[in-house]
Amino acid sequence: MTASHTVGRWLVDRAARSPERIAIDDRGLTVDYRTLADRAVALAARLRDAGYGPGDRIATVSASSADHVTLFFGCALAGVAFVPLSWRLTAAELGELLARTRPAIVAADDEHATLVAEAMQAAGWDGQAPPVATLGSAGLEARVPASGRDGTPRAVRDGDALLIVYTSGSEAEPKGAILTHEGCFWNNLALSGALPLHEDDVVLAMLPQFHVAAWNVQPLLAWWRGATVVLESTFQPSRVLRLIAERGVTCTMGVPTQYRLLADDPGWDAADVSSLRLAVVGGATAAPDLLAAWADRGVALTAGYGLTEAGPNVLCLPAAEAEAHVGAVGRPYPHVEVRLVDPDTGLTLDGPATGELQVRGPSVFAGYLGDPEATARALEHGWLRTGDLAARDASGVYRVVDRLKDIYISGGENVAPAEVERALERHPLVEAAAVVGAPDPVWGERGVAFVEPRAGALVSEDELLAHARTQLAGFKVPVRIVLVDELPRTGSQKVRRTLLRDRAARVAKEVSRERG
User: Fold this and answer.
1) pLDDT per residue as tens digits for the range 384-404
2) Which residues, at least 6 apart from 267, have a Cβ–Cβ distance to it below 8 Å?
């Protein structure tokens, strides 16, 4: 391998320097760097001998595991794109993604073999369906299905696809974001500059491996640096708290929901989390009380912001600055350029301002798989349009205000749902809230709030409306609050606002009828 940024060589080079260090702790079964590299190199050779190389894709449906990581590095070395798909999907949803991906091979672990079989039937292949193989030493690592091609594939290059990760699809159909070797190199170089990992770190990977953060926020950097990655296939708060103490976990990354569940676990007060030196929270803005709960245990959470299309790392706020910038997500990572653009005029905004956050840099994705129109909408003269409305203060620190498409206009005033949600979530009996705009014959739109009370809590709509009126201007107070057992969420824990909008429209009609 001569290409300078190809990710497969990270493992091979590290194994040459630190062969006996532990690369993976997979539920107590450890794999050292020599073994992991030997397995990945052998698998890559089998893939290439079978005719697979750059331009091919292998789709996977698997829990986080050493076998899954081996396949990732085998694909990286062979130049095959690795496409991890969510096992949380229904067979029909998974079938749609498989058909869209057009993989050369579909690989599954034993746990999800039935789901994959059903998804393969649901896919409705245009042509011959790809072969299905199992992961591990008795599966793909022993025998790779023949491609039926002659000749040797070309060597992997920096610009070849490494990862194709489907976006959450919270507002539209999921799209496969193509991340190249070069892009992932720059993403991890930026991460190492802002939040470095070292050879003696122990990284707990508690996000499922169909998320980009499960690779590009700590794990890949850990394997580049020679650290140990502890893999968790499912998130069980009590078990995670034990692992932090037993494995001496020093670094981790999770979404606010995970940190909340850990802090709410009955074993939280007695848990030993003193080994943690770097705990990153992303995917959404963490509430102040959550940050305080972890700070009280001596762990200051480091806030981050990113999106799959950016690789994902864009902004981070060092824990030391969290108190001075409550609710912020920080400044750009090294090698990442950001700007704010006025959504109405398209003009770039200077100084303290609020506008659409846009990103440019070598870690930005190469486009959406098979969707040039969506790619063109997302990229404007090299700038990635995030669709997020962000505010920048005088010190250059950013905070995310809302999704642009989530904003609704009531009586000529813009209302950011995130602001209303934060106000409702300040009520002690509220676990989570989601607000969407609904048509109103007088005001144009009014907000309808869906509120998930804390477990066992009894709270009424009137009580929450009274609370909201103490927190918000009148035009921001929802016209109706709907109590729900659980907010609908995607696999990445983002609220499925599309579903809520349909329900909110019906609620708004009921309100109009009630008011005559």
Assistant:
1) 999 999 999 999 999 998 878
2) 238, 241, 242
User: What is d(CA 457, CA 451) in angstroms, rounded to the nearest whole number?
Assistant: 12
The CATH T-level fold of domain 8-391 is Rossmann fold (3.40.50)
Domain ranges of the chain: 8-391, 407-514
Q: What is the pTM of this model?
A: 0.85
DSSP secondary structure of 378-413: HEETTEEEEEEEEEE-TTS-EEEEEEGGG-EEETTE
pLDDT > 50? residue 2:
no
What tens digit of pLDDT does each residue of 21-54 get?
A: 999 999 999 999 999 999 999 999 999 999 999 9
CB-based contacts of 461, cutoff 8 Å, min separation 6:
480, 481, 482, 483
Looking at CATH, the fold of the domain delimited by 407-514 is given as: GMP Synthetase; Chain A, domain 3 (3.30.300)
Amino acid type, 3: A
Residues sharing a CB contact under 8 Å with residue 10, sequence separation 6 or more, in sequence order: 220, 223, 224
- Omega prior to 332 cis, within 30 of 0: no
C-alpha 177/C-alpha 411 separation (Å) is: 38
How long is the chain?
516
Mean pLDDT value of segment 360-374: 96
CA–CA separation, 271 and 248 (whole Å) = 12
